[in-house]
Prior knowledge:
The protein is an all-alpha fold and 740 residues long. Helix content is 48%, strand content 2%. The protein has a two-stranded antiparallel sheet with strand order 1-2.
Amino acid sequence: MRRSLWCLLLTLACFPLIARADSPDEQFEKQIRPLLVNKCVECHAGRTPEGMLDLSSKSGLHKGGMTGPSLSGKNVDASLLFERLVTDDEDLLMPPGERLSDAEIAAVRKWIAAGAPWPDASAEMMPADFATQSDHWAFQPITRPQPPSVANEAWCRTDIDRFILARQEAAGVEPVEDADRATWLRRVTLDLTGLPPTIDEQADFAADTSDQAEQRVIDRLLASRAYAERFARRWLDVARYADTSGDGTDMPVPEARYYRDWVIDAIDADMPYDQFLIEQLAGDILAKQNPDDPENYRHTIATGYIALTRRFGNSKYAELHQIIDDTIDTVGKSTMGLSLGCARCHHHKFDPVTMEDYYGLYGYFASTVYPHAGTEHQKERSDMPAITVPAKLQSSMESHVAWAVSDKSDPGDSPLHTAGDPSKRGPKVPRGYLAFLTDDRPEIPNDSSGRLQLAQWIASKDNPLTARVMVNRIWQSHFGRGFVINPANFGVQSPPPTHPALLDYLADEFVASGWSIKHMHRLIVSSHVYRLASSESAEQLARDQSNEWLWHFPRQRMDAETFRDSILAVSGRLQSGSNGRHPFKPTDQLKYTQGNPFSEVFDHEFRSVYLMTPRLNRHPLMALFDGADANTTTAERGESTVPLQSLFVVNGGFVRDQATAFAERIQQSGDDTEARLEHAWRLAYARDCSADERIAASSYLDQYVASRLAEANDPAAAQRDAWISLARVLIASNEFMYID
């Protein structure tokens, strides 16, 4: 009896909890708010919600969007909001490509039938974690961390070493021994110039035993034109430089080379990086502000950075939105490490970039005249900005124009494109910056695109991304990998930097140095960590297999340009200068079609940075050895290893011709075989030929000559071919192509 009574009392006590339905407020909080946050407001929130439907507040819900009111009272089946959840039309289904569960749909039906109650009319919601995305490390102001204390202070040459060694000591790894002097000289010379050290440079360094010997080498390399050519190519990668248009015709752009040369000149002169960016984004505006400056034509040429946006069609306005989208994507990735293009159709799914941010940027470039907006090639050039070139330079320039941009006569804000569709225009969005980084709004003159204001904001020391991104690129250029693994993505999805304190220290140093790129290169290659050998230790590999703590120098394969240029250098065929205009047909004869696109490849024996760079039909060597893709910003090149690369080196005509010249150079160095071998090793590897190598090479030459004499009694030809064969072996070796 007592037991039955307890069961009855328990049942009665629980009954109200089981039978009681959730109140409207509770149902909203438990079922509707999570649904809106997780499925809807990622796109339908903020100041420019998709379709102008804002589901982050009660007022936005009842106001509806561009297609009409969201609700029809309590009539569920007449509600546009509910209709989009259950439609069989995949193009109209919401969320796009993701049908809600039956339980979720039932909850929404119940909520609408109850009058779509919203507990607090003032409460708003944003996408999950949208507000906290702004707390991401890369979006915070740059600080100047103090170099940490280390146990082995004597090992450190610079503050860089203190940051690196502190992480090594904490991780229990020890740096390897230093590279020998010959290895270091080859490393730093190839690294800073993309060319091997000459025999004279090797001899001078070997003879200089002072404490300043390395610094003198670094200063000499940084002052060379070869350095500027080397690092200009790295910027041209991210600027997606090309000498052709990239559409179906891949029309040649003879004037593009002016921008390439401008970049080389700017790097050579160590133009402050903030000015470097401002001129590329708004140089034409600077030129207009200083009409009496005889050098202002260079400012206009600098905007080739924008003008070289890939062309996406032949009509005057069709595809213009794609051209602008490509510009925004390039600007975002190359200067700030952000994938801004993701916000064209909806708020960025990971970073705090809204559609309003995107179309605020869009307005700058929609107010800009691109040189490839005409319907015919000649018409395009009539749209190009005129430049006044000093008389002394006119002979080297084939044309009353630059492949550059200029402001439209009627600049202004741009409308938002619903779902990224330019035919579905919403309200105009004021030109601005990225709201999550600044509250500032630009003050744009009525007759200006505002690109100058945008450029000044991007290049400001208060923009935390710009200095970090460039310092990361500079570090990557020396060690093959940046602190941030993806140099074009500093957003929320990117893994944190391996050395965050050092990254900020260098970013602050960069700004404090007056944005000097050369200063940063000098600082890095002067460090002890850069001096380490590339050898590996099994014990250290067990602790840090990926070399994250930089306990040894990472062995790196030459990039395509360095490989080609080094072959030309050792052959003695490398020409100085730029080779001038590419041998395109005269401008008035540049008539290509979709069915007959431009497809020529122009080769020469000048440095690879001066090769004609097509977008569709890439230079064979550049394509084979992972050169940059000129169709998009390239922050990091791939590194493939395929049989065709070996076949190119062993059988290719280019290597054959250069090996022939290399062999002639070796033979002309003297009559003694050992002296010739020493000369060959110095040219190819920048080191002595070892005793074992001399024996092996001499034996190889003797056997080759004997084999040829058995075929034909021509001793001179046999000797020549033997040295050619050896020269090709040296070029084809791993030691030639890899940098220790």
